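User: ok so my PI wants both of these folded by tonight, can you help

Assistant: No problem, let's get them done. Here's the first:
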Amino acid sequence: MAKATQTFRCAECGWTTSKWVGRCGECQAWGTVDEAAAPRAGATQAGPVSRVAQPIGAVGLEVARTRPTGVEEFDRALGGGLVQGAVILLAGEPGVGKSTLLLDVTAKWAKDAGRTLYVTGEESTAQVRLRAERTGALADDLFLTAETDLSAVLTHIDEVKPSLVVLDSVQTVSSPSLESPVGGVNQVREVASSLIRVAKERGIATVLVGHVTKDGSIAGPRVLEHLVDVVLQFEGDRNSRLRTVRTVKNRYGPADEVGCFDLTDAGITSLPDPTGLFLSRHAAPVPGTCITVTVEGRRPLLGEVQALVAPSALNTPRRANSGLDSARVAMVLAVLERRGRVQLSTRDVYTSTVGGARLSEPATDLAVLISVASAAAQEPTPMGMIALGEVGLAGEIRGVTGLQRRLAEAERMGFTTALVPPDPGPVPPGIRVVEVDHVGSALAIVADPASAFPLT
């Protein structure tokens, strides 16, 4: 008889091999290769079904209705609020404010919607209580426990009978039925699968906090992101108060929303209009500054680009930037020097954003170009002007997506003029646009603003 062969499969990518290895040969992940279950002989037989199939028009929608949590920006990222039985994965770097945000969410949910269970596996209950007192996140129906055993967590769910469960974090909880270490691939998959099954059976909204790796990706098996209904990325710079919750995946709403928060010693608050954090106030026009409008998810946000050009004492002039894409800045500087005839090869160029904003989309190219040209010529840009456009290698100014939405936001914030690519389409009332099709046209406006924006 033929000898039965064993098959080993990677839990991350599905790669298979005939013998066990410590590292996957496809995705190079360590400790993810386990023995795959042998296929059962014979054809699969028909079995009982959990529920009868019905016409799609007869399917009820109540179980998919969103319910607000009371935290506006968190609801915005979720697409309106939490859904009964939905499982959310919230990932972010250590110390960014995940626990503070979720403590605020659970406290408001407990006050308005019912019992809430907060399970912490990284801190003691006393530590969480101190933070709750400091941030004003105390509620009678908010139950708190510190557990790292999966069976104990499930027991707490049976006893409390909550409508919302928060597990902080999924990498700290383990199942006693598995011998793999805490935080390992198998443990994370087992813990997540068990909680997802309970959430779906009982209609409990569940939030799982996840760790991230050094490169910013979610730690654990990739299948974890496929199992949950919503994946949120919590981002923020330690040197800035601004925090953002970015939707990566959402089965109940748009997957491109962004919620903004202000993190202080007193807690975390929603920022419905965070534009003020990204702009500086100048009493008079200043050389080397230009305002642009970026789109985060579906939300247009104003951002300020600042530039400083100074003579260099080095053989290779320095290029430094903060908050901008280094590759795009280098490209814009090359186009500015080659197509715009602005001498930069013997000067240091420093570029930055205001308030810790990240401007990486091509629509901000024109603002970077104008700010650098303004700093090099020591000519201030006109007050109340914004710049929108992608800069091409030939020096052309290309169109950007969502131009009308960006112009409407600029007009709402009090800006009156805008440099835009050709054929902008319908323009919101209250703002005047000047079309620029080449780098030379933009530089001419920087050199002589009165020619483009005559006094009326």
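One down. Here's the second:
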Amino acid sequence: MVGRTGALLRAVAAAEPDGATTSGAARVAGLARPTAHRLLTALHAQGLVDRGPDGGWLLGPELYLLGTAAARRYDVTAVAQPFVRRLADRTQESAFFSVRRGEETVCLLREDGSFPIRSHVLHEGIRFPLGVASAGLAVLAYLPDREVADHLERADLAAAYGAQHGTGALLERVARTREDGWAVNPGLLVEGSWGLGAAVFDADERPLGALSLTGIEQRFGTERRRELGALLLREAHALTLALRRP
């Protein structure tokens, strides 16, 4: 029951800020619609989910209060925010900080640069499996080979995200990410929307998340990708050191 409830809350979070339908949340959580409706109704009674003006399910006020209580131990956004803001200012693109949560990455921060055309693939709270989007690819690439293979064996990413997320194609991008140091998403989620990501590491040198940039394809040519990738690596290294400080 706890696992199903957690999956349902994550499904609702993924639909923010528009709100999730009962059927949509059930599908994402892998539950039957009647089961999802029963659980959502119980969560609503506890203030853990809410209903939007159009009836969609949203995260509830009680989650905010619980999150505030937990923030002192787990919140890394205060440390990461200046790095994300600096990336957005220097590149004029949209910059992000995502953290690893199990076999997913969760976007915690977004800062938009001054360039008027923006990508809206990422927003705070959105989740992707490892290997999907530049942040997820950056994290996956710096896991041990055995963990990469195990993840790709369990996750049928091609079914959800297309043939370019099949095992062979992903392993090629993992190898390229390790070679370059940064990951590239060449418009695989939304055509024309490119992304670059660089992993951030914990004290054990395991990837805990990633800094990333997104923008339109015309601004991510070969030379500029090298410049942006080098900048991402510098900022990711600096953030890694900052997060390790007491």
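The chain has ten helices and eight strands. The two ends are 37 Å apart (CA to CA). Good luck tonight!
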